[in-house]
């Protein structure tokens, strides 16, 4: 007897309730038996039945009403024994007004009760295992970090996970039934169709294509294809991955590489120029040594008197000073022979001080300052050159005389 919702009201009549060949129990909303037909009373005993919980009276393996309802919805429990010594299938249906209708129908199963229970347990275990496997597969399918598209032999999408919908910007309802061509530009279509046509089972093909968003804007993607056969029909699994970020990183790396190469070229040019300058300076220095220094050394060696030799030595000192790095108008070898006091006198002369003012400033006697002026002129080679003033000479040399 097919399990269905039943309603016992006045229209059914007491005759139908008593005439059925099944054992009928009526319970209140809590599952307590409040009424039994004659066959049920005969089998179970009316006195021991009314007022008892139906799952307890029928020996079901549960402790509560909820447990009994779950058990009866998952399988058809069986009740054996009683005064009729028969096996009955137990079915439970809710009543519209509240409570439940419990039917005990004579079992026609060829299996012995124990064998039937074992078969039911086995079937239930297999069903649970299948449900767990399907749930796990669904979780993996939806949770994987890449888009997955299932394509049938018509090259239409029959399934996709959420990531694939996000990749192409398409609502899940709209991607179903879409042709695989709609997901790529013309060149990408050729690539994907070639992979679908040439791939065989247990093989994986992968290629880069230009994919399309729902608004037909493009982005770089990688399509990885595999093939399975389900009930004689081919089914392609396409894993899609948006590689826009990867392409942008590659572009930045190429740009940085170009900038680095340009910087290296510029640095090599700078180093080359420095090397050329060093070589030119070395060549100039070599020419000066050969042309000027060596002849002076020869003249010093052959000088007839100490006075002439000292003159050559002074000239040689000035020449060497001019060859030093940074040498220019400010380098004057003769000034280096002045004493500290004489250098101070030169600074005051350059500043426009008169001899009296220098005496007052330095707290020196007039004759002492005059002696310093004579020594300065002698050391600078101005002795006997009355027409050249000491102030004019120092100013013309543009020398920053140190104190």
From TrEMBL:
<dbReference type="InterPro" id="IPR035965">
    <property type="entry name" value="PAS-like_dom_sf"/>
</dbReference>
<dbReference type="InterPro" id="IPR000792">
    <property type="entry name" value="Tscrpt_reg_LuxR_C"/>
</dbReference>
<keyword id="KW-0238">DNA-binding</keyword>
<feature type="domain" description="HTH luxR-type">
    <location>
        <begin position="331"/>
        <end position="396"/>
    </location>
</feature>
<dbReference type="InterPro" id="IPR000014">
    <property type="entry name" value="PAS"/>
</dbReference>
<protein>
    <submittedName>
        <fullName>Uncharacterized protein</fullName>
    </submittedName>
</protein>
<dbReference type="GO" id="GO:0003677">
    <property type="term" value="F:DNA binding"/>
</dbReference>
<dbReference type="GO" id="GO:0006355">
    <property type="term" value="P:regulation of DNA-templated transcription"/>
</dbReference>
<dbReference type="Pfam" id="PF13188">
    <property type="entry name" value="PAS_8"/>
</dbReference>
<dbReference type="Pfam" id="PF00196">
    <property type="entry name" value="GerE"/>
</dbReference>
<dbReference type="InterPro" id="IPR016032">
    <property type="entry name" value="Sig_transdc_resp-reg_C-effctor"/>
</dbReference>
<dbReference type="Pfam" id="PF13426">
    <property type="entry name" value="PAS_9"/>
</dbReference>
<feature type="domain" description="PAS">
    <location>
        <begin position="133"/>
        <end position="203"/>
    </location>
</feature>
<keyword id="KW-0804">Transcription</keyword>
<keyword id="KW-0805">Transcription regulation</keyword>
<dbReference type="InterPro" id="IPR036388">
    <property type="entry name" value="WH-like_DNA-bd_sf"/>
</dbReference>
């Amino acid at each position: 007897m097919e399990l269905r919702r039943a309603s016992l009201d006045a229209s059914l009549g007491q005759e139908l309730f008593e005439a059925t060949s099944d054992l009928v129990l009526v319970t209140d909303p809590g599952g307590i038996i409040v009424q039994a037909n004659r066959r049920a009373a005969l089998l179970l005993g009316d006195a021991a039945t009314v007022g008892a919980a139906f799952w307890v009276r029928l020996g079901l393996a549960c402790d509560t009403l909820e447990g009994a309802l779950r058990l009866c919805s998952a399988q058809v429990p069986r009740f054996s024994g009683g005064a009729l010594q028969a096996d009955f299938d137990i079915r439970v249906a809710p009543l519209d007004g509240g409570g439940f209708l419990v039917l005990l129908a004579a079992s026609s199963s060829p299996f012995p009760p124990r064998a039937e229970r074992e078969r039911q347990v086995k079937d239930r275990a297999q069903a649970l295992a299948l449900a767990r496997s399907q749930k796990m597969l669904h979780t993996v399918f939806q949770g994987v970090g890449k888009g997955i598209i299932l394509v049938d032999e018509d090259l239409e999408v029959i399934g996709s996970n959420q990531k694939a919908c996000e990749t192409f910007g398409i609502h899940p309802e709209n991607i179903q039934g879409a042709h695989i061509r709609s997901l790529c530009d013309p060149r990408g279509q050729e690539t994907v169709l070639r992979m679908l046509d040439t791939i065989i089972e247990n093989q994986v093909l992968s290629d880069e294509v230009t994919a399309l968003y729902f608004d037909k804007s493009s982005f770089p993607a990688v399509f990885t294809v595999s093939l399975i056969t389900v009930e004689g029909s081919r089914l392609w699994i396409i894993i899609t991955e948006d590689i826009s970020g990867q392409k942008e990183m590659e572009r930045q790396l190429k740009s940085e590489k170009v900038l680095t190469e340009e910087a290296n070229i510029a640095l090599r040019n700078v180093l080359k120029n420095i090397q050329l300058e060093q070589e030119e300076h070395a060549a100039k220095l070599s020419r000066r040594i050969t042309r000027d220094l060596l002849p002076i050394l020869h003249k010093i060696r052959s000088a007839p008197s100490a006075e002439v030799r000292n003159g050559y030595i002074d000239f040689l000192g000035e020449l060497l000073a001019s060859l030093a790095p940074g040498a220019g108008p400010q380098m004057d070898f003769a000034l280096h022979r002045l004493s500290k006091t004489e250098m101070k006198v030169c600074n005051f002369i350059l500043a426009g001080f008169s001899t009296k003012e220098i005496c007052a400033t330095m707290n020196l006697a007039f004759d002492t300052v005059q002696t310093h002026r004579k020594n300065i002129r002698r050391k600078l080679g101005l002795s006997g050159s009355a027409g050249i003033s000491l102030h004019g000479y120092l100013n013309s040399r543009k020398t920053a005389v140190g104190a």
